[in-house]
Specification:
The complex is a heterodimer of chains A (295) and B (289). With 295 residues, chain A is mainly beta. Chain A has one helix and 24 strands. In chain A, the strands form six sheets. Chain A has a four-stranded antiparallel β-sheet, with no helix packed on it. Chain B has one domain: 3-Layer(aba) Sandwich (Rossmann fold). Chain B contains ten helices and twelve strands. In chain B, helix 6 packs across helix 7 and helix 8 packs parallel to helix 9. The N terminus of chain B is likely disordered. The chains are: A mainly beta (295), B alpha/beta (289). Chains A and B meet through helix 1, strand 16, strand 17 and strand 21 of A and helix 1, strand 6, helix 5 and strand 10 of B.
């Protein structure tokens, strides 16, 4: 009898699943479709970003030659920009150029999609990751100094927030670009800041709480991106954690393999419906029922 | 309450598709309107609270209710409402000013100043955009942050103009859903200040870790709290948890640990109608010595 009850109860739960809240992670996954390799044979992939067509760009921070591309249509992997090794954070700005944390050279640079003509925007910075807003403000994390920097459209560089996030790492914005979001590699929180018209960051607060590995006090928050409806995806030690716009943890997507270390995440592919993750020597992808904000 | 847990799980889907169960819950005479001759307290909308140090950058609306029987110099009881806008409206779901006027005039509750606070929001700093809500951060988070907001910011602001009690037994917190767990959390963290809790459809689930309370209640020396819980068998069942099971778990833990408490478990869904229909009786019970 108990067994029969249990079966009924399980069925019941499945039925009630159709009443799932907007925030349920499973509502955004595609049943039966998990991670599959998209690019392999690298050393330490990072710096995922996308363009309007859904091409994915990434770097191989420790061993690569420059910027690699996964074609949105064919899935073919190619070297898109040569002779720029050591980039850890990458995005295409509103002017159509790449903006990059050139970690190896301790500088922030901008350059055309096709390469060449590198403009140095800031130097002598221990930059980790960056985001560029539609208004042309560049925000980047400097992990060892617990600081978040801003470079204004006029090229003015200053520290925008300091001392709140223990090891600021991943960085992204809300779809209305009013809120800057920074993951903590040395804590449990993803922080939110108000973006002021002059680029200042105010009202920093530990808005989202990540789930750490069992027994750990740090979640190892790393790369972050934004979904079109305002959800945030953050890579951590245990997987990719999804937060709803209210900052509530909605679920954790498993890593591609238990041994994977995931450090960067982005929606790309046709219509930006594919989630890509940098996991050490490989990039993996999986289809989603939701799309990315960046394009 | 002694059901096999699987049985209550089983009930959920059967009733989810049934006609809404909430229509059974309607306001009684204590809530509908003031009885004849009952003096009317005043409701004051306060200037938006914009200078919070505990939740920097937020702005929030808030109101206070002052009963006609209040006398300056005589300490009034205090009842603080999370999501206060839904409680303070004369023609709203709860109609708290009407309930308080009726019960205070009848001598069925003490002279009580009501403080009705909205959750904070971040207004957009530029351009056109919706404000970002800080509600989940303020209400669902465990810890003493919200209690400190009340103790360090709101209560002193009200006490400037009104004589409020200093007795924690005479301070109550009320909330619905995430506001319900917020009310409990503030009292759990600061029983030196708050000792009476009213939670409707409380989110004692894993939104931000609140599912641990039944375990904490069982393994923590009893605190001097009195707790009222209301929920419905058709309340939420989602990725954060199962609301009716969580509230029953809370009640079982409070029972185990010897707390004065009540759980009223109805048939409703995730809304305030049942809690509102009970509210006058709830207030009578929560202020009982």
């Amino acid at each position: 009898m108990l067994r029969r009850l249990f079966t009924l109860a399980t069925l019941g739960l499945a039925c009630s699943g159709s009443f799932a809240q907007d925030t349920s992670l499973s509502a955004h996954l595609v049943p039966g479709k998990g991670w599959e390799p998209a690019a392999t044979g690298f050393t330490f992939t990072d710096g995922l970003c996308t363009d309007a067509a859904g091409n994915l760009y990434f770097t191989d921070v420790k061993a690569g030659e420059g910027i690699y591309k996964i074609d949105a249509e064919t899935g073919a992997v190619s070297l898109a920009v040569k002779d720029l090794p050591g980039i850890s954070g990458l995005q295409i700005g509103p002017d159509g150029r790449f903006y990059a944390c050139h970690n190896r050279e301790k500088r922030i640079i901008a350059f055309p999609i096709s390469g060449g003509d590198v403009q140095v925007l800031a130097s002598d910075v221990k930059c980790n990751d960056l985001v560029v807003t539609q208004r042309g403000f560049i925000y980047f994390t400097e992990t060892p100094t617990k600081s978040i920097h801003v470079i204004t459209p006029e090229g003015k560089h200053r520290v925008a927030a300091e001392g709140q996030v223990n090891r600021p790492n991943g960085i992204t914005v809300s779809p209305d670009e009013q809120t800057l979001v920074v993951s903590d590699h040395g804590g449990l929180h993803v922080w939110a800041f108000q973006i002021q018209p002059n680029g200042d960051l105010t009202a920093g607060a530990p808005f989202m709480t990540m789930r750490p590995a069992i027994g750990k006090e740090e979640a190892l928050g790393d790369g972050a991106t934004t979904e079109a409806e305002g959800r945030f995806f953050v890579t951590t030690e245990i997987g990719i954690q999804m937060f709803d716009p209210a900052g509530r943890l909605s679920g954790v997507i498993d890593k591609p393999t238990p041994e994977s270390k995931v450090v960067s995440v982005e929606f790309a592919g046709k219509d930006h419906h594919t989630l890509f993750v940098a996991a050490g020597d490989s990039i993996y992808r999986r289809p989603m029922q939701t799309a990315g904000y960046f394009r | 309450m002694n059901w096999h847990p699987l049985l209550s799980l089983l009930l959920l889907p059967l009733t989810l598709t049934a006609a809404p169960q909430d229509d059974a819950y309607v306001l009684g005479p204590d809530s509908q309107q003031r009885r004849e001759g009952v003096p009317q307290g005043k409701v004051l909308q306060m200037p938006a609270w914009t200078e919070s140090q505990i939740f920097p950058g937020t702005t929030r609306d808030w109101w206070i209710y002052v009963p006609a029987q209040y006398q300056a110099g005589t300490p009034a009881n205090v009842m603080i409402f999370c999501d206060g806008a839904g409680f303070v409206k004369e023609d709203g779901t709860f109609r708290v000013p009407v309930v308080f006027d009726n019960l205070i005039a009848a001598g069925e509750m003490p002279v009580t100043i009501g403080i009705f606070i909205q959750p904070g929001q971040f207004p957009p700093a530029q351009g056109e955009s919706k404000p970002r809500s800080n509600r989940s951060f303020e209400y669902d988070s465990l810890g003493d942050r919200y209690a400190r907001f009340l103790i360090e910011e709101i209560l002193p602001a009200v006490a400037k103009d009104y004589t409020l009690t200093e007795d924690p037994e005479k301070r109550a917190l009320v909330g619905n859903s995430s506001g319900g767990i917020c009310a409990f959390t503030a009292a759990w963290e600061r029983p030196d200040t708050f000792r009476r809790v009213i939670s409707h459809i409380g989110s004692f689930t894993n939104i931000r870790g609140g599912y641990v309370y039944p375990a904490l209640i069982r393994k923590t020396p009893k605190k001097p709290l009195r707790v009222f819980l209301q929920d419905g068998r058709n309340d939420l069942d989602n990725q954060f948890g199962n609301w009716p099971l969580a509230n029953q778990d809370m009640a079982a833990a409070l029972q185990f640990a010897g707390y004065p408490h009540q759980l009223v478990l109805g048939e409703g869904t995730h809304n305030a109608k049942h809690g509102a229909s009970l509210f006058p009786d709830t207030v009578r019970w929560i202020w009982k010595d």
